[in-house]
Design brief:
Length: 161
């Protein structure tokens, strides 16, 4: 008698499991038929916003160009100021001699020779893209006989790669 009682309950249990499994498969395969299934539609993943890129530093050389109102300059004293002192300063004007001294972020440069309008000196920088952060001004000038100019009005300097 014990066997007969167990058999029907085991059979019922298996029947319930099969029916519930079938119902679960049937319900899961019926989703998305136009009705509200209670599940939010999936949306494509959003891309993170594009971050602006910072240009990488490009080491190189900047050139100081001179515009002079005179044809007989023999010496010019200039100050170059920037985020860092100018380094490796060399003459860009043919036959010119250059001497310099830095104090903080300002470099004083003396250029001697037969000078005229055009490239005056070159200097090294860690980033040529930062050329606009450098400035230069003429503080003194003399002619080729070493006579000091009364004024530096009319002298212009530009700095560019």
């Amino acid at each position: 008698m014990i066997c007969m009682t167990r058999f029907p309950s085991t059979l019922m249990h298996r029947a319930r499991v099969v029916l519930l499994s079938g119902a679960a498969v049937l319900v899961s395969s019926c989703g998305g038929g136009g009705g509200d299934s209670g599940i939010a539609p999936t949306q494509p993943p959003t891309q993170p916003p594009v971050q602006p890129t910072v240009p990488s530093a490009v080491p190189g050389t900047l050139i100081v160009r001179l515009v002079t109102p005179y044809m007989d300059d023999g010496a010019i004293l200039i100050d170059i100021t920037g985020p860092a002192p100018a380094a490796e300063i060399v003459a860009a004007a043919q036959g010119a001699d250059v001497h310099s001294r830095s104090n903080g972020n300002t470099t004083r440069v003396a250029v001697f020779g037969s000078l005229g309008s055009g490239a005056l000196v070159r200097f090294s920088v860690p980033d040529v893209n930062a050329a606009q952060q450098f400035s230069a001004q003429v503080t003194e000038a003399s002619d080729r006989t070493s006579a000091l100019r009364a004024s530096v009005t009319g002298y212009q300097l530009t700095i560019a790669p």
